[in-house]
Amino acid sequence: MKTRISREQVQDDFINKVAEISGENFFNCYQCGNCSAGCPSVDEMDLLPSQVVRYLQLGLADEVKNCRSMWVCAACTMCHARCPKGVDISRIMDALRMLNLREPKAAARVDVTDFTPEYLERAPQIAMISGYRKFLPL
Amino acid sequence: MKYPYFPGCTLYTKAKKLDDAGRECSRRLGFELDELPDWTCCGATFPLVNDYHIAMSGPTRILADTKDQGGSQLVTLCSVCFNVLKRTNVVMRTDEERRQKITDFIERDYHGEVEVLHYLQVLRDEIGFEQLREKVVKPLTDLKVACYYGCLLLRPVKEIGLDVMENPTIFEDFVRALGAEPVDFPYKIECCGAFQVVHSMETATRCSRDILANARLNGADLVITTCPLCHFNLDDRQPEIRKGDPRFQTVPVLYFTQLLALALGLDAAELGFERNLIDPLPLLREKGLA
Amino acid sequence: MGEVTELKGQQPACQTDDGAGATCACAAAGGLEDLYSVPVDRRVMVIGGGICGITAAIDLGNADYRVVMVERLPSVGGRMLQLSETFPTLDCAQCTLTPRTVESGQHPHVTLKTCCEVVGLSGEPGNFRVRVRQNKTYVDWSKCTGCGTCIQKCPTKSYALFERDAGRMTAIYTLSPQAVPNKPVIDADRCRYLTKGKCGVCAKVCPVDAIDYEQQESYFEVEVGAIIVATGFDVYDWKTKMPELGGGRLPDVIDGLTFERYLSASGPTAGRMVRPSDGVEPKEIVFIQCAGSRNPELHKSYCSKVCCMYTAKHARLYKHKVHDGQVYIFYIDIRSTGKGYEQFIQQSVSEEGIIYLRGRAAKVFQEGKKIMVQGADTLTGKKIEIAADLVVVAAALVPNEGAEELAEILGLTCNKDGFFVEEDYKLSPVDSGSRGIFIAGCCQGIKDIADTVAQGSAAASKAQVFLSTIRRQKKQAV
Ligand SMILES: Cc1cc2nc3c(=O)[nH]c(=O)nc-3n(C[C@H](O)[C@H](O)[C@H](O)COP(=O)(O)OP(=O)(O)OC[C@H]3O[C@@H](n4cnc5c(N)ncnc54)[C@H](O)[C@@H]3O)c2cc1C
Ligand code: SF4
Ligand code: SF4
Ligand code: SF4
Ligand code: SF4
User: Which of A126, A129, A136, A138 to substitute to test the interface with B, most B CBs within 10 Å?
Assistant: First the structure.
């Protein structure tokens, strides 16, 4: 399948919003892949972290909006620590999550009723609170 | 020496042993952890997007309280609290616009005056590892320790600045001071999957497996951590990892304060190991430490 | 096709060639007095008056050698005359070049022979005898004052090679307002009088009667001790060789050198960014790198070396003119190894939001008013299609037309791509392997201005070393 890219897409509102709230200039990224090489979550991702940036560069908003990668990012910030161009993908992932969760009909990504009592007895609060912050609509 | 101290929610409950041992050791080492009165949760995550300030109001209030009580430093034990407080503090110091928004909202006057310290920093920079060595009553001879840093103690590099990100040594120096032997352990700075344990369990399991296997491969008897979330991932995932891979060798995971307590002469029986899924006591007994 | 085909000769001061050939005496009469004021082992010929040849000539002149520079175009400067601004500093090419061309024109020890070509060589290293053809200019330069009245009045305005079809030029012209020498020539192929026998306006308006439609080409010979060859490069004939890029058929698909003319403040659009077909400002522009380069199966096997950089420069200069425009660049990889070049690329991308698509563009075709570009982006694993307003092809660069013939005349070797072969690529890069003859600049291999200038100076220095060896040998023989 061929993909059309255009000025309108590249300068699309959603893409601009991601850039704005993440504070990142996608065009700083030169696609070296260092971020993806060190990311702990790639096994569960559909797009590599570097590809998420790539799609944003090309204005492929729909693919990014619905990607799984933003949800499995662990915000470990290894990508940022190692990026030779100072791109902070953890911020980009968070921006994507936020924009998703701010949608009026956003669905919760975790369901507390799924957790067993044994799990809840052992899981530290920081895990639960972080989880709610990252996965529940605002 | 008396340090304002922020334990955080998890250390009051699920990670009480991290806190207990930390406090007891501080007494033995001659400094006091002075718990802030009426503290609230730090929020557990630092907001990464720059249009979401509310999450920083909690940590800012904690910092402002510290300042109002005359504290110039604030000590934490939990990596998550440390990370959130420290990064919030950086915003207070460097981003005037956001600082004003947040402090106006919580009606406090705060400009980043407080210094956020991790307990390990107090040991290194205030007590000194040499002094620590002298206070050790039961050297942990013959014990090979994998020092697991994880993410939040080290990153983001510019904001945290605790140690060299790619090859930190503060933890190893600490372990050496206790008479144990740190193992060279490449996975020491990799992520354990963190909060994905509530969402993508497979991520947390896989990450933890890789870290633990790497520790074992490099000869570790046990793994230490500063973080209750890392501890949860590394310890609690092991039965499942083992189920998936019978060749996987389990490895006990301890809080660093528990290791410190052992070296300072506390009884292993008092250190709360009964909560560990992978029981460290057989190992400690074998090494003559329990 | 190089510019040379449109240029016809200049009336030499000596008699026209009668078949028997001109003599040294008459060459001396043609403005070579300074050259002949010193022994042959202090005289050097530079062939090609681009930035490379100019650099070599000025260096030699300053070292008290006497130089004759043979350039086949009406004025010196070479490709740099056509450039807009130059990487990595984005200085105006004309502003950096003009002081050098002027210096070469005014230098007491450098004699310019423009509209001239070398046609024969005899003698031996240290004492060469070079036969030169003076092509027709149709203007008697000994009379012409360079007033430019003829250019103003010439009714012919048509597309010319120098402007690379980006704009029209009069049939009587100079290459730039600051041309050195600043004397016009007539393009016989476009001149109404020379093609149809009608017009003659320039002859009527010329106040000093310098126009000479009957002028013939002539020949002269020069004796020099050493020769530096700096004949530069041309653009690969991508229009006929790469039909998949639609060149020639699609007016809005142009090459990089043409784009330079659009960007240039002294170009035909005075630097206004428009597309050829309808003069509209292009909002989406696609650049295609490595077109014809790095393609051993179908085109040239080598990397043309400067196109990565000039494409980034083009993208940047375009964005300076069209702020809301979007740039896409198809590339295989980006080669930016010069000093400051990588930073130039990175800054261009970060600041101008240029989209580099990692893959070649396979096909370019017209669809309505748009140029459709089909390419790939291997980073996303997608086949990409862009509807562009203008497409700029970074076509392969090749040796200048006539390089092989010149090699034959001078006894040089060319590689399979037509670049002159050096004695040793690493250790003797400007020695040609023929004693006393040196090669420098893009005729040896494509390079940027910085490297070109370095080789120009290197060749000047090597020529001096060679000639002083000759002098020592002569002395010892005595
Ligand atoms: C589109 C484009 C953009 C560029 N931009 C830049 C840039 O921004 N920065 C940069 O550093 N480089 C740039 N370059 C490269 C730059 O143009 C060359 O490095 C430089 O022009 C080489 O100079 P030269 O003297 O070797 O050759 P040329 O400039 O080609 O000069 C050769 C001269 O020899 C003459 N000649 C040829 N054959 C004969 C003959 N048989 N007899 C007599 N005379 C002859 C020619 O007429 C010409 O005047 C660019 C190149 C291109 C194609
Ligand atoms: S490491 Fe940085 S520059 Fe490299 S691909 Fe990732 S974001 Fe881009
Ligand atoms: S922050 Fe997210 S994207 Fe970056 S390395 Fe960690 S998990 Fe991967
Ligand atoms: S004769 Fe006419 S067309 Fe030819 S150059 Fe002169 S003015 Fe131009
Ligand atoms: S310089 Fe760049 S664009 Fe030109 S041929 Fe080489 S790689 Fe391709």
Answer: A126
- The verdict on B32 and B155 lying in the same domain is no
Each residue of C6-50: pLDDT tens digit? 333 333 333 333 433 333 333 334 689 999 999 999 999 999 999
Pocket test for ligand 2, best of A57, A87, A88 (most atoms within 8 A of CB): A87
Is the Cβ of C312 closer than 8 Å to some Cβ of chain A?
no
Q: Quick check: B41 and A128 CB within 8 A?
A: no
Which one of B199, B212, B230 makes the best mutation probe of the A interface by having the most chain A beta carbons within 10 Å?
A: B199
Number of domains in chain B: 2
- Asked if the structure places residue A1 within a domain, the reply is no
- Report the nearest atom of ligand 4 relative to the CA of C172: 5
C103 CA to chain A: closest CA distance, Å?
43
- Chain centroid, CA B93 distance in Å: 24
* Confidence at residue C24, expressed as pLDDT on a 0 to 100 scale: 38
- Do B144 and B279 lie in a common domain? yes
pTM of the model: 0.91
Cα–Cα distance between C455 and C468 in angstroms, integer? 20
The ipTM of this complex is 0.95
Say if CB C117 and CB C133 are below 8 A apart: yes
Specify whether C168 is located in the same domain as C204. yes
Mean pLDDT of C377-381: 95
Q: Number of C-alpha atoms within 13 angstroms, CB side, residue B106?
A: 21
Atom from ligand 2 closest to the CA of residue A31: 5
pLDDT digits (tens, 9 = 90+) for A77-126: 999 999 999 999 999 999 999 999 999 999 999 998 889 999 999 999 99
Spell out which residues of chain B touch residue A93, defining contact as CB-CB under 8 Å.
48
A and B touch with 3+ CB pairs <8 Å, answer yes
3-state DSSP assignment of residue C336: coil
Q: Helices marked H in C192-329 — which ranges?
A: 192-196, 201-205, 238-241, 256-263, 307-321
**CA C223 → CA C1, C68, C111, C127, C220, distances in Å?**
31, 10, 14, 7, 10
Q: Which of C191, C169, C392 is nearest to C267 (CA)?
A: C169
Average pLDDT, stretch A11-23? 97
Cross-chain CB nearest to A128 (options B55, B78, B198): B198
- The domain boundary, picked from C346, C375, C397, lies at C397
- Judged by a CB distance cut-off of 8 A, whether residue A17 touches chain B is no
Q: How many CB pairs under 8 A join A and B?
A: 143
| Distance between CA atoms of residues B224 and B7, nearest Å | 19
DSSP B15: T
pLDDT in tens, B111-164: 999 999 999 999 999 999 999 999 999 999 999 999 999 999 999 999 999 999
Supply the mean pLDDT for chain C: 93
Q: What's C44's DSSP letter?
A: E
Q: Does residue A2 lie within any of the structural domains?
A: no
**C87 close to C312: Cβ distance less than 8 angstroms:** yes
CB contact under 8 A, B203 and A129: no
Chain-chain contact of C383 with A3 (C-beta, under 8 angstroms) = yes
Q: Please name the residue ranges forming H helices in chain B.
A: 9-12, 16-29, 57-68, 79-94, 96-106, 119-121, 129-135, 157-160, 170-177, 201-217, 228-236, 238-244, 256-263, 281-286
pLDDT at A138 (0 to 100): 78
- For residue B247, give the CATH number of its domain: 3.40.50.11810
Q: What percent of chain C has pLDDT over 70?
A: 94
* Residues C363 and C423 placed together within one structural domain of the fold: no
